[in-house]
Write a structure and sequence with these properties.
Belongs to the eIF-2B alpha/beta/delta subunits family. This protein has 320 residues and is an alpha/beta fold. The protein is built from ten helices and 14 strands.
Length: 320
């Protein structure tokens, strides 16, 4: 099942804000609808956002084929709909590069972005499962964070794709899914996907993760990324840094799984990345709150980064 696709002239997505209570498909016909879906997190996850960006430009190219100025404004709005994940702007720019060749060429490029992400997920699942087996032996117990399955990556997923591959190989003991505050993407989305796959798992509050590692209940942490900087710093959902610190203290691997499209060699380190703040409303109904959507995990806390093309052993000094 593809969680984002182009169907009969519109972008179709599974509405992630409705899960797990309702499996609702949204059809997005305009750039405005697509941007609203991105900003509301109806579609989210770095690879899926790259596909959304490309399909958004395909929509814009059809609507504004005779108005270059309006088309340029639409592309800029798509690129900047969310600032932290590199894939959104990258996917939009790839599709926009084909604008001189007409709307059908733009759509064809957007579909290539989609297909490449599907292929990347399958490759990451294999490489990541091999690495986990090498580092942790047979039937490890894994902790995940946020949501990194097919919902975030069209099909299969990044880190959760590795979990699924280990399960298929009969080499997985169980999963702890951190709930992932404030929108519970782990408790809602990861748990929903793991249940569909028949994978035994438990949900833990975010702050319990490091304690569970210290108590010996976790053999490795495995999660995704919204951006990987040139020095190996990892930008991912808020709470990732705390899990990295816990893993280091417990002496267990901290593994990041993300496609090459998430590697941003043009950004030297995490301090150069704009971290999106989602505002107080997602946290509390009264008063003010600080609500960063992402945090920065320094490269020296990362054991390895798995992409669809390679395994980068950051703990051995390798860089993206």
């Amino acid at each position: 099942m593809r969680t984002i696709d182009w169907v009969n002239g519109a972008v179709e997505i599974i509405d992630q804000t409705a899960l797990p209570n309702e499996e609702r498909v949204l059809r997005l016909h305009t750039v405005g609808e697509l941007i609203a879906a991105i900003q509301s997190l109806a579609v989210r996850g770095a690879p899926a956002l790259g596909v959304a960006g490309a399909f958004g430009v395909a929509l814009a190219a059809r609507v504004h084929s005779d108005d270059p100025a309006a088309l340029s404004v639409a592309v800029q709005k798509i690129e900047s709909a969310r600032p932290t994940a590199v894939n959104l702007a990258r996917g939009a720019r790839r599709a926009a590069a084909l604008i001189p060749h007409g709307p059908e060429a733009v759509l064809a490029e957007a579909c290539r972005v989609r297909d490449e992400e599907i292929e990347a997920s399958a490759a990451m699942a294999r490489l990541g499962a091999d690495l986990v087996a090498e580092l942790c032996g047979n039937r490890p117990r894994l902790l995940t964070h946020c949501n990194t399955g097919g919902l975030a990556a069209v099909t299969i997923g990044t880190a959760l794709g590795v979990v699924g591959e280990l399960h298929q190989r009969g080499r997985l003991a169980g999963v702890i899914a951190s709930e992932t505050r404030p929108l519970l993407q782990g408790a809602r989305l990861t748990s929903w996907e793991l249940t569909r796959w028949g994978i035994e798992h438990r949900v833990a509050v975010d702050s319990a993760g490091p304690f569970l590692m210290a108590r010996g209940e976790v053999d490795a942490v495995i999660l995704g990324a919204d951006r990987i900087c040139a020095n190996g710093d990892v930008i991912n959902k808020i709470g990732t840094y705390a899990h990295a610190l816990g893993a280091r203290r417990a002496g267990i691997p901290f593994l990041v799984v993300a496609p090459e499209s998430t590697v941003d060699v043009g950004t030297p380190s995490g301090v150069r990345v704009e971290i999106e703040d989602r505002g107080s409303a997602e946290v509390t109904a009264w008063g003010e709150a600080v609500n960063p959507a992402f945090d920065i995990t320094p490269y020296d806390l990362v054991t390895a980064i798995v992409t669809d093309r390679r395994v980068i052993r950051v703990d051995r000094g390798e860089k993206p």
